[in-house]
Amino acid sequence: MPLVKTAEIVSPGTGIAAFNVITLEHAEAIIAGAEETGRPVICQISENAVRFHHGRLAPIAAATRALAESSSARVALHLDHVTDEALLRQAADHGFGSVMYDGSRHDYAENVRRTAEAAAWARSQGLWLEAELGEIGGKDGAHAPGVRTDPGEAARFTAETAVDALAVAVGSSHAMTERTAELDHDLIRRLRDALPVPLVLHGSSGVPDGELRRAVAAGMVKINIGTALNKAFTGAVAEHLPSRVDPRAYLAPARDAMAATVAHLLRVVSG
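RESULT FIELD:
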């Protein structure tokens, strides 16, 4: 099936899971999980993943796109946490339906200026643009523990930038390996009521199933998941690696473990 546009499968009132692609096995597992459940899915490639592939976006994007197009699942391709404007502008050439431009390391005014420019460019290319509001530097940005998004400021930011979706801080944080996060569901509802665009939850690997279901019911739409796949992958490799020479002996169960995680979380998020 041809790639679908992100905008076609992101719909307020329902949840859509977006999983991070690092290796070919990640992409295969994500799409296998989508096929098993019959749910649409977003495969997202981050700037960090591009850096891991020696700064080359084209090979991992082409592989993910080829897998999607040979699948029966509805798959969208998303470029995530982009800070490099040159990388941002590659999205239109590689099948991406959306980009998350991350200006959260800048102060409010500079974030607005840069994000508005990114959103205008994305619209000119027929792409959907996600952004993040925050003034805390580093990878976590607005998703560092303890940070919360103010609904009034978020509404102002959304109006000034004309973005299509906003990542908000409601109690999750990146790279959590234990599912112990407790979300502020009242804040999610207030953000849903204040903003005209879908809400995005980053750091969802650390959020228990029940909390994810409640978050979607309260108004969260796009649910980003990365570490949960890496945890499944690494656990399976560790179990099967001893005395193995052929990498297929441990990559196959690692891929299967990720696919099972994807299928489970797709059912949690999308009902």
